[in-house]
Each structure stands twice: as C-alpha cells, then as structure tokens.
Description:
Distance between the termini: 11 Å
Helix content: over 70%
Structural class: mainly alpha
Low-confidence stretches: none
CATH topology: Growth Hormone, Chain: A
CATH class: Mainly Alpha
Number of helices: 8
Strand content: under 5%
Order of helices and strands: HHHHHEEHHH
CATH architecture: Up-down Bundle
Number of domains: 1
Largest sheet: 2 strands, antiparallel
Amino acid sequence: MQTSESFRLSAVLSFSGGLQDAYTYNVRGNVFANAQTGNVVLMSQNFMLGNWSSGVYYMLPLISFAAGVFITEQIEYRYKNSKRIHWRQLILLIEIILLGLVGFMSTNMNILANMLVSFTCAMQIQTFKKVHGYGYASTMCIGNLRSGTESFSHYLRNRDNASLNKALHFFGIIVVFAIGAGIGGIISGVLYTKTIWISPILLTVVSIMMIKENS
C-alpha cells in the first residue's frame, strides 16, 4: 500500500479539509470552499431571485473548484513518471503556497480567498482518492457517510470483518474531519484570516510523510 493511501495520512488531510471549510464559512463570508453543493444551492437561489452579484459570488468558487480538478489531472498526466519529484508532492507544494497567500488577504479580498481555497480543495480531492484502497473524499463527508453506512450494513448482515474494517475507516475519516472543522471554527475567532496557515503546516507534514512514496 502506498503512503498516500494510509489512514494516518488521510486523517491529516481530512483534518485540514474540515478546518478549511470552517475557515471560509466563519471568516470569508459564509462560503463552503469544500462542499460545493451548498454553493450551488445559494448560487441558484440568488440567480432566481435576481440577485446577480450574490449569485456570481457563490458561482466563482464552483468554477475555481472545477479548474483545480482540471489542472491537477493535467499535472498528474505530465509528471506521473517524473523521477525528480512525486506528482502528489508537487500538488501539495502548490496547495501550500496558495493557502499561505490566502492568510495574507484581508476580508476585502474574500472572493479571491474563497476561490483559492476551493481550487486547492479540488486539487486535494483529485490527488488523494483512496484510504487503504477504499475510495473516499478528504474534504467532505457525504460520500464517506454513504460508503461507511453501506459497509456497516453489510457487516451486520454478513458478519464480514472486511466490511466492518471498511466502515470504520470511513467513519474515522468523518470524525477527524469534524474535529478539524470544530477546531477551525474555534481558532477562527482568535487568528481570524491567519487561521488558514494551519493547513499549509499540515500539508507540509503530509509531504514529509510521502518522501518514500512510490509512483
């Protein structure tokens, strides 16, 4: 199993993901940088009511998220076989730089800040897709909750330890995400715009953990 699929590494990513969502919601104007479904609802609602500027406000993170997925896929294709640096570490470096810049932005730049966080969130989702071989998302919970509950249901019916193990992985990721969101919300009241700097620190830890990663 690759280091990038370990539960320990996935937990760090999920903690960071939860913190980022709490940060953009509490500090950057009630926008969900990671869970884009909320932005779709708010965007559509505002457009339907004729609030065009508010609709665009929620649309921009969506566009940025899509751009993050697209660029990550391009980077993976181009650098997957690179011997100098693992492509996942290259993605982490980009995330670290962009999230570091967000911490310097005042609340007058919330639109750009939210776009950058959404962009890096998409990069993370596209880069880290599995934990112990199970497909998961490190920056949102709905898919993990569905998969975890499904696996637990299988376990109750068949007493299959593999299904229980799978369920525990998904539920564990959700718990870590929730802890990250809770701590992010609390710290946001103290560090305010600088709270996001915790994520680059965590991503640096992830990058160090991946030093021996194989392509």
